[in-house]
Write a structure and sequence with these properties.
The chain has 666 residues and is α+β, with helices and mostly antiparallel strands. The protein has a domain at 22-54 and 393-661: Rossmann fold, CATH 3.40.50.1820. It has twelve helices and 39 strands. α2 packs across α12 and α6 crosses α7 (519-530). It is globular. The protein starts with a strand and ends in a 5-residue tail after the last helix.
Length: 666
């Protein structure tokens, strides 16, 4: 029994936190067995879904090669193998292939594998990489001699980021503390047993990250909280030099830095200009008083990122929730935009490793356009398609339509909704819809293509994304209006989106499924408590359900740093507000939809016990007889199964659950 601000808090399921207790593991296995038993009649359907999803994928495939130094780098997949094979060719795409890292071989004997860092030295002779074999995101660093294929004796545990210096035998890395906070910067010289500790971040709100500029001239060390940034820089040619602070940390001032010619290009939101502006500072003296504005702050446009090259830079901007790319010539300062035709889409940079080039490589996709890689010539303005992901089985985008509509929240705010459905789907309330959302950390929910989604669309099920507040679709203020003491806007926005879809005939409450993962699982969990009649079924993946208990425990990964996202329940005002929406706290005796909850035993971001406790407590409270299933991956972490075939099998299970609840399991 805990007492918080006078409240007596009894958690009857706290015992599920004992990960190493055989009784807890037996309980989780029993939950898996129960879920499998309930879903046993759908096993043939699951196999059919798996086969059709696999049948749309080109199993032997390769990414578009990109050039870095004297090599072209790419990855490829082979039929029957779970993981990519990372390769390169020297000087020409016609040169013999060199395999730098075969993830399938690394994964032998392991149920899980995740590649973290992958950084090749400037001379192309050595590779530093990090891998995690548990899903807990605890990465171990290795160094590989690419000339011989042999591993160097160097090993480092709990590494979060890596960057080479220009010296061929020296690199920098950042390590984590026990709460998984990246907090120490080290310099490592090959062949030397111990690294040199250079800097330590002592403020628990801040996390280190080290990176190299595209120009290769500088190494940057970021120390960032959710609201504040401080950057140090070092000449890459001088790994033993002094790290210089570019702009001292200032509360709620975020900035990031790139280098080009004799300038640092800085994306900054200081002075209350929340959506960022772009400034330049002379490398010789980059103090803030020397900053010169290049692109001003705009209330209706979010400046998301800047990519700097030898003769131009490319801004990624977001207006009305949609990304646009703005190209600027460094000599003439003339700018132009790259235009995109669809009402909802996603754009992002690809590997642009070359500094001296007129080309910019980006990825474009939408609900109906498969992932497409383009090269854009910034001088001639020629756009060249390099690769569009092939969808096997006769995919025809003309069979579907995409729309962008808006719901109106109670306070009058317009909430964007992106939607894809069969082209002939009626608007009479008879169609089924899956509505998803996220709404946290200022992260926009991308409108991306998925061939797996076709298994829903081909059965007449539309898919919609509610771009709710708390995300970043409409800039920093969109984030601000859905975090801390405004977090409930995220949930009421989502409800408004669902009601709009029902009111306009896109679907009906008994034909609506809602889903979300991680912070999106918190969203769905809160919505189900507020409006259990909103939908017929829900899927929650690695959901953040136990907000108050987690945020009261500073020993957990992420907790302290996320006081700036959710609040600190040790403050009475924050605690009282969290009580109004915390999904675990607000479970109640009422009828709930059919629910599938997924989690993973080794998740280090949202602990497995949040899902397990939520399901256990809900079973004692709910007054309906609808399915409540918990599936626990005992060998993975936050992202679920790591192998591509294993991930498809998990998705086939989820699709079978959703389609079964919608009466579309055919």
């Amino acid at each position: 029994m805990d007492v918080v601000h006078g409240d007596r808090r009894q958690d009857d399921y706290a015992w599920l936190r004992q990960k190493d207790d055989p009784e807890v593991l037996a309980y989780l296995r029993a939950e898996n067995a129960y879920a499998d038993e309930v879903m046993k009649p759908t096993e043939p359907f699951q196999k059919a879904l798996y086969a059709e999803m696999l049948g749309r994928i080109k199993e032997d495939d390769a990414t578009v090669p990109y050039r870095r130094g004297d090599y072209y780098y790419y990855s490829r997949t082979e039929k029957g193998k779970q993981y990519p094979i990372l390769c390169r060719r020297h000087g020409s795409l016609d040169a013999p292939e060199e395999i730098t890292l075969d993830l399938n071989r690394l994964a032998e004997g392991h149920a899980f594998l995740s590649l973290g860092a992958y950084a090749v030295s400037d001379d192309g002779q050595r590779l530093v990489y990090t891998v995690d074999f548990t899903g807990a995101r605890e990465y171990t660093l290795y160094v590989k001699d690419l000339r011989t294929g042999a591993l160097e004796p160097d090993r480092v545990e709990r590494v979060a980021s890596v960057a080479w210096s220009a010296a061929p035998a020296t690199f920098f890395y950042v390590t984590e503390d026990r709460a998984k906070r990246p907090h120490r910067l080290w310099r490592h010289r090959l062949g030397v047993a111990a690294g040199d500790l250079l800097l330590e971040e002592t403020d628990e709100l801040f996390r280190f990250g080290v990176t190299r500029s595209r120009s290769l001239a500088y190494v940057f060390l970021y120390s960032a909280s959710h609201t504040t940034t401080e950057v140090r820089y070092l000449g890459a040619e001088s790994p033993g030099g002094v790290w210089t602070v570019l702009a001292p940390r200032e509360h709620e001032h975020e900035y990031d830095v790139e280098h080009g010619r004799d300038l640092f290009y800085i994306r900054t939101n200081g002075g209350g200009r929340r959506n960022f502006r772009l400034v330049a500072a002379p490398v010789a003296d980059p103090r803030p008083e020397r900053w010169t504005e290049l692109v001003p702050h705009r209330e209706d446009v979010m400046l998301e990122s800047v990519d700097v090259f030898a003769d131009h830079y490319v801004l990624q901007e977001r207006a009305d929730g949609l990304v646009r790319l703005r190209v600027t010539d460094l000599d003439s300062r003339a700018s132009h935009h790259i235009e995109f035709p669809e009402p909802a889409y996603d754009v992002g940079p690809e590997a642009n490793a070359e500094f001296v080039t007129p080309r910019y490589r980006f990825r474009y996709e939408s609900f109906i356009t498969p992932t497409s890689v383009f090269d854009y010539d910034t001088v001639t303005r020629e756009l060249r398609l390099l690769k569009r992901t092939e969808v096997l089985g006769g995919y025809d985008p003309a069979r579907y339509r995409t729309e962008r509509v808006h719901a109106t929240a109670a306070d009058g705010t317009r909430i964007p909704i992106s939607l894809v459905c069969p082209k002939d789907a009626p608007r009479d309330g008879t169609s089924a819809t899956v509505l998803t959302g996220y709404g946290a950390y200022g992260m926009p929910y991308p409108v991306t293509f998925s061939s797996n989604r076709l298994s829903l669309l081909e059965r007449g099920v539309a898919v919609a994304v509610a771009h709710v507040r708390g995300g970043g679709e409409l800039g920093k203020r969109w984030h601000d209006d859905g975090r801390m003491l405004k977090k409930r806007n995220t949930f009421t926005d989502f409800i408004a989106c669902a009601e709009l879809l029902v009111r306009e005939g896109y679907t009906a409450h008994d034909r609506l499924v809602v889903e979300g993962g991680s912070a999106g699982g918190l969203l769905v969990g809160a919505v189900l408590n507020m409006r259990p009649d909103l939908c017929t079924a829900a899927v929650l993946r690695v959901p953040f359900l136990d907000v108050i208990n987690t945020m009261l425990d500073p020993s957990l990964p992420l907790t302290v740093g996320e006081f700036e996202e959710w609040g600190n329940p040790k403050l009475r005002e924050h605690y009282e507000y969290m009580k109004t929406y915390c999904p675990y706290t607000n479970l109640a005796p009422q009828r709930y939809p059919a629910i599938l909850v997924r989690t993973a035993l080794n998740d280090s971001q949202v602990m497995y016990w949040e899902a397990a406790k939520g399901v256990a407590r809900l079973r004692t409270l709910k007054t309906d007889d609808r399915p409540l299933l918990l599936k626990v991956n005992l060998d993975a972490g936050h992202s679920g199964a790591s192998g591509r075939y294993d991930a498809l099998r998990e998705l086939a299970f989820d699709h079978a659950f959703v389609l079964g609840q919608l009466g579309r399991a055919v």
